Predict the structure.
Amino acid sequence: MSQPRRDSPSNVIAFREPANLLKRQSIEIELPAFLVAVITRRAEQANEGAPLEERLSFSEVIEAQLAEIVTIRDVAEFEIEMPGFAEAVQAWLKNACE
């Protein structure tokens, strides 16, 4: 059985700069009209009676919905691949609760 060469890419450890996982990024998505209607309704319900400075945007409603699908297992697995992932989730949760 042959051994991998010492200079093989599989033997190289990548030391990369940790990503800023809290950096905001804009994305463009297409959604069917019924989903847009649901998200709009959720925003309206969340904003009912809320002071202007506490109102949620359409994007914030989507963000909250997406955050709900992140599991503890996801956090553990992503932390292995992206050190700092768990810390970013914790910071996001802290900010979301304030």
Observations:
- The helical segments are 33-47, 58-67, 72-81, 85-97.
